[in-house]
Write a structure and sequence with these properties.
The complex is a heterodimer of chains A (264) and B (268). With 264 residues, chain A is mainly α. Chain A contains 11 helices and 2 strands, in the order ααααααααβαβαα. A two-stranded antiparallel sheet of chain A has the order 1-2. The radius of gyration of chain A is 24 Å and the shape is globular. With 268 residues, chain B is α+β, with helices and mostly antiparallel strands. Chain B starts with a helix and ends with a helix. The chains are: A mainly alpha (264), B alpha+beta (268).
Chain lengths: 264, 268
């Protein structure tokens, strides 16, 4: 809205100074940029969440989330790969011919995943072992090539990095939520084995939420992951429906008030 | 005109554009192949495009390989240290470090026998105190787990008693069969101090089969497999003890390189 008003005010004063116009153009560009960042954040974290809405990367999402620590490990690894691949793809987007962009994106992503895998092997050996095959499988996470293709290959580096960050965060949050639900239901703990990820000091993070005589198997096994995921998606849809219903009511109310004002 | 439309289609269907573009190229060449005068120029244009794309792809492949090999070079030593530390941690948990004084991780023999569960070559680490063998830590496999092989390492004292067993790798059901891990349950410690009396010692079975080891509620197959694997390995060792211990050290070539990490790990 403010963008539309700004040029009008300049017309009123009839100042055709180029400096002013430049400043206005800069301001509008800035505002647009801000709006775009905001939109990117909303898209990544909620509206177009890779885990809940796009349902991309379900294989690691369901297989690894038996504990919060595993979920956090995979979430961070995916986030890192996503940001790096988005930045690289965006940086080289002018030099990549359209015909061979997919193999190039796959190459870049595979290279980053291998690097992350090597680094985790070197510095967080425990979590590397408990993530097992799902760490190299990040390569096949469609969310990453999806963002490279849909966003990073068409947009500047900064926005692409932000997009990767937000999408990665959205994915990691869902991983964490699922991990927390399954770990509490299955083992009655939180952050079990956090020392594998962060080193010895993190063993104090382990929280005994409730004492279970025997583990609740369904929560630990893959079917439990599917059920928990379904509940999360249902919850998200319910919230969306609730918000849109509220919005309709709000707009109706506003219209009524306007009418009353006109009548009086 | 057709070119324009084709290219527009390629752009709109962005996901499949690689395929469509390829198809378009084929169509163009076949359609204009009839005009013999144009075909040569088109073909050369196509080859130029192909060779250009190939070069770009090759460049990216080289760059990516370079990056990966750089990281690999940078992390290689560190990964080796981590693996050694992990090995030492496991060895310490089944043979008390005060019982031996040699560099155990670099004193080993390679063993391959059907009694050890699989055809893979197994490593056996030898613990010595002032040159005398006190125990041997053998890696082995228990076949017929609930979900495939169970890899474990077991330390056997020189007098034939079990010093300790740890499961290294398995795919048993979480929550049921995975109680063979020391993290989940201390069942695996029930082997410690046990000895085998004869070849087919009937006590070496789960209690369901009238043996001396407990099974888990809901999971009998997993402990049965582990008990059988441990028994076979123990039998193999007692029978071939003399032959095994005279073999030359197979890990000594690494010894000179990795002494610092082991000292560091031993201090922890």
């Amino acid at each position: 809205m403010s963008n539309e008003i700004a040029p009008q005010s300049s017309n009123d004063t009839d100042v055709t100074d180029s400096l002013d116009e430049q400043a206005i153009a800069l301001a509008t560009a800035k505002a647009e940029l801000k709006a775009e960042y905001k939109e990117l954040a909303i898209q990544g974290l909620w509206k177009n969440n890779p885990g809940l809405v796009q349902l991309l990367g379900l294989c690691p999402l369901l297989a690894v989330t038996s504990t919060v620590t595993n979920a956090l490990g995979l979430g961070l690894a995916t986030l890192l790969v996503l940001v790096c691949s988005n930045v690289t793809v965006s940086a080289i987007r002018h030099w990549v011919p359209k015909e061979i962009r997919i193999p190039i994106f796959v190459l870049i992503i595979a290279a980053f995943v291998t690097c992350v895998q090597l680094l985790m092997n070197a510095f967080t050996y425990g979590i590397y072992q408990s993530l097992g095959i799902f760490l190299p499988l990040i390569v096949t996470n469609c969310a990453i090539i999806g963002r490279a293709e849909a966003y990073a290959s068409k947009n500047p580096i900064k926005q692409s990095a932000f997009d990767g960050l937000m999408m990665g965060l959205g994915f990691a949050i869902i991983l964490l939520l699922l991990g927390a639900i399954r770990e509490i239901l299955g083992q009655g703990t939180l952050f079990d084995g956090a020392n594998l990820l962060f080193g010895e000091w993190a063993s104090v993070l382990r929280i005994e939420v409730m004492q279970l005589d025997s583990q609740f198997l369904l929560a630990i096994l893959p079917p439990g992951a599917f059920i928990a995921m379904g509940i999360l998606i249902a919850l998200k849809n319910a919230i969306d429906n609730h918000i849109s219903a509220k919005k309709v009511v709000d707009t109706e109310k506003v219209i009524e008030r306007v009418r009353v004002n006109f009548d009086s | 005109m057709t070119d324009k439309i084709d290219s527009e289609q390629g752009q709109s269907a962005s996901d499949k554009s690689t395929q469509t573009v390829d198809l378009d190229n084929n169509d163009n060449t076949s359609a204009e192949g009839s005009n013999s005068s144009n075909s040569k120029a088109d073909k050369s244009a196509l080859t130029v495009a192909i060779s250009k794309n190939t070069k770009i792809l090759a460049l990216f492949a080289i760059a990516c390989t370079l990056a990966v090999s750089l990281v690999s070079e940078f992390t290689k030593d560190r990964i080796k240290i981590q693996e050694q530390q992990q090995l030492l941690r496991t060895l310490h948990s089944i043979i008390d470090p005060s019982r031996y004084d040699n560099d155990i991780a670099n004193d080993c023999i390679m063993v391959s026998a059907p009694a050890l569960g699989s055809d893979n070559v197994k490593t056996a680490y030898i613990a010595r105190k002032t040159g005398q063998v006190v125990a041997v830590a053998m890696t082995s496999t228990a076949p017929r787990g609930y979900n495939g092989n169970i890899d474990f390492i077991m330390a056997i004292n020189i007098d034939g008693t079990v010093s300790g067993v740890r499961v290294l790798k398995h795919q048993e059901t979480p929550g049921l069969g995975d109680k063979i891990e020391i993290k989940k349950n201390d069942w695996i410690n029930s082997f410690t101090g046990k000895k085998i009396l004869s070849d087919d010692d009937s006590r070496w079975a789960v209690s369901k089969d009238n043996g001396m080891f407990d099974q888990f509620t809901g999971a009998t197959i997993t402990p049965r497999a582990v008990v059988k694997g441990v028994k076979d390995t123990l039998n193999y060792f007692t029978k071939n003890k003399a032959m095994l211990l005279t073999r030359p050290n197979a890990c000594s070539d690494i010894a000179t390189k990795s002494i610092p990490p082991i000292n560091k790990a031993a201090n922890e």
